[in-house]
Amino acid sequence: MRQNEGGKIMTNIDKNTPAEKLTIAGNIYEAGNAREFKTGDWRSVRPVYIPEKCIQCGLCFPVCPEDAIPVRKDQKRVDFNYDYCKGCGVCAKVCPFGAIQMKTEGED
Amino acid sequence: MAYNMKEIVAEKPSRFTSGHRMCAGCGAPPVARMIMRALKPEDHAVISNATGCMEVSTFIYPYTAWTDSYIHTAFECAAATCSGVEAAYKSLKKQGKLPKDEHTKFIAFGGDGGTYDIGLQSLSGAMERGHDMTYVCYDNGAYMNTGIQRSSATPKFADTTTSPAGSVIPGKMQSRKDLTEIMEAHHLPYVAQTAAYMNFKDLYEKAEKAIYTEGPTFLNVLAPCPRGWGYPTEDLMTINKLAVETCYWPLYEIENGKYKITYKPVKKLPIEEFLKPQKRFKHMFKAGNEWMLEEFQKEVDRRWEDLLKLEEMSNKE
To answer: Is A69 found in the same domain as A27?
Structure first.
């Protein structure tokens, strides 16, 4: 019931895809396949993570609308996932330690 | 168990993934993600979503940002769809056609347009019929998805494209509907109003309670919109904070008729603090428009006082 119907990948379809290549009723069986859609190219400013200043307080973990702050099992964050970060800057604003700095894309 | 945000984020994988196409800095995704994290990892969920920002940008075919079953439903039907699926599930379970040890939870998401306005009758119906489901309204205070038209959740004096502030009208002319109170009038086992504030503790705990309380439950969550409210995207959490600290958006819950205000600001901030950073209220700060601020403050005070009274009254033995 939950498996991918016959291995059909719905994100590979376009308007010319024949019906037999589609799943029944066009249902999507791949949970969370939006991950294949990278939204990182929306970004005009980029958050830069400065690990030396970070005390792993966790304030930035849940505020990211894009879930672009990976948190490991040991409850520590790592560098941003720029595949999805849209550069909103919410994380930098909530960081009281200056461990996230916003930089314009293209600048060093 | 005490709330430990770091543990929750580290241990529970996100059930609302990256790659959705909500605007940068949108207030709704962090809220939706935290609500989904309130589910036990072993439980399945069925999400029904009313038309709105969240529907059109988390489920752009053939992509889905949800790892649970998701039904793309029409504007007015989120609650009706959810209640129907819940009824079918109950029936199948009774007939022994579904595994006994697996549980599915039913959650409907709707914006303020799809909840306060268009979906109100189906929501009222589903709640009254007593389905075991949770309805979540993420309130961004206007029809943001179609271009910022006023809804019944839009606060008075807000400038929207259908209530433009100018020399003729002072922005929206009517007061904001109080949906949380309307839902309480259905005498549900659990109704709560919350926002992403204080490390999401309030939001997470209320979501958990709502989802795991048997029967129909309702959550009203504030979801600021940088585009429609007119503030810089990075200020999302500041706006959330000011909404709560000015008592514009009180955090409270009602459990079987008993009110509990879950956060009382030590020092209630003047409403200007919340209004000032937002472009939609810019005209209220022009000379000669002080009466708008006064009226707004009065309305906030009145509603807050009422809430305090309700809390006191409902907890009297």
So the answer is: no
* Number of domains into which chain B is organized: 1
Q: Are residues A47 and A98 in the same domain?
A: yes
Of B7, B21, B232, the CB nearest to A39: B21
**Statement to judge: residues A48 and A30 lie in one domain:** no
CA dist B135 and A52 (Å) reads 43
Whole-angstrom CA distances from A20 to A11, A14, A24, B51 are 15, 13, 9, 30
Q: Taking a C-beta distance cutoff of 8 angstroms, is the pair A90, A64 a contact?
A: yes
**Nearest residue, CB atoms, A62 vs list B5, B17, B23:** B5
CA distance A91 to A38: 19
A50: domain range? 39-108
Are A66 and B18 in contact (CB < 8 Å)? yes
pTM (2 decimals)? Answer: 0.95
User: What is the CATH number for A75?
Assistant: 3.30.70.20
Across the interface, do A13 and B11 touch by the CB < 8 Å criterion?
A: no
Domain hosting residue B113, numbered range? 5-314
pLDDT in tens, A40-91: 999 999 999 999 999 999 999 999 999 999 999 999 999 999 999 999 999 9
Calculate the dihedral angle through the C-alpha atoms of B109, B92, B104, A22, rounding to the nearest 10 degrees: -70
pLDDT, tens digit (0-9, with 9 covering 90-100), for B93-130: 999 999 999 999 999 999 999 999 999 999 999 999 99
Q: CB atoms < 10 A from the CB of B198, how many?
A: 16
How many domains are contained in chain A?
2
State the pLDDT at residue A4.
Answer: 57
pLDDT (tens digit per residue) in B146-183: 999 999 999 999 999 999 999 999 999 999 999 999 99
Instruction: Give the ipTM.
Output: 0.91
The tokens of B175 are what? Answer: 């007061």
**Cβ separation B64–A65 shorter than 8 A:** no
